[in-house]
Amino acid sequence: MIYLYAYLGIGLLTLVIVLAADWIAKRQPAYAWNRFWETVGVTERSFWLGVLEGVLIPILAVLLIVVAWPMAAYMKVVDLLSGRTHKSYATQPEQEFTVMHEHLRERLSLSEIELRELVLDPLGAVPQLPFGHLHKAWAAFVEQLEATDELWSFSAELRPVSWRTELRAGYVGVRDGRPGSFFLTVRRDLD
Amino acid sequence: MTAQIAERLRYLGQDMVMCTEPLGDYFAMGGARPPFDFSCTALWRGYVGSWEIAGDRLYLSALQGGLTDGTPATLGTIFPDFPERVFAHWYTGTLRVPQGRLLSYRHMGYGSVYERDLLLDVKRGFVVSSRIRHNGTIESEEVAEGYRVNAMTVYAHVKSHTGDTP
Description:
The complex is a heterodimer. Chain A is α+β, with helices and mostly antiparallel strands. Chain A has helices at about 1-25, 35-40, 45-65, 70-80, 85-90, 110-115, 135-145, and strands at about 105-110, 150-160, 165-175, 180-190. In chain B, about 5% of the residues lie in helices and about 45% in strands. At the A-B interface, helix 2, helix 3, helix 5, helix 7 and strand 4 of A face helix 1, strand 4, strand 5, strand 6 and strand 10 of B.
């Protein structure tokens, strides 16, 4: 019996730690999201969903933490180590993409590319530079090229996931005959 | 994954919603992505963009969201020199604008099916063609027109929501 009390006691301690960590997290400044929901037209209207999320789920969460505290402790540690797990989900990197030799289309000079990619807009909503709003990214791409690198346009069809075909195109630096770093200009679904 | 709050689009003088995120391509192509605060399962991207088609060009005209430091995110946060309007020259793809009544609700991404989809094909920021895709009709008058997200969980400032988005 003493083991059961000890187990539940640790569960209560875990609950206190989890609640304290949440309280500290909520003290950090955050954007006024409540006003945001109103401006995007989301309105609160379900009483029963409010009861579910505001009362029942917290009660169940407390019971679960006290009874199954090793799992709760593990999840909290993972959460703290990774910042916020939902944030890392939202910023998951794209699947690795590499330009292959068969994707190469046309060898071009830097000036040819920059002339071709000059963006103009009658309303003045873009900087009049090669690649417009993406000029900084282009400049960073060019900066890491070596003097002997060739510049090629490329176009590739790939399947990032099994049910979707995607076209990717842009420019790639070719060093010693091998395509390396690239600058993306098109990424569109083909299905 | 929860159904997502849609982007907004003004086209031919009408306000619509758009189940496509052209700004995602901008970030994927090397545009700097600010640290958007995540606070809701229906808004994984952390912002809502307002777009318009003027002439045959696609523009981003406003942005709403929040940053992790507590400040609001606006168009000027991403494009400091163009806080009023940004030509979306980087975008090539098809904008999907759901129209009519809901045929089938899917609580995931932009998976819900509506009576029609207005599809706008865009090439490097220029609208090159448009077409309507008919997905079916629904007899019941009880189903309201318009895009909707049925439920979401809001973090940080804990508040439950369910409702429609225009």
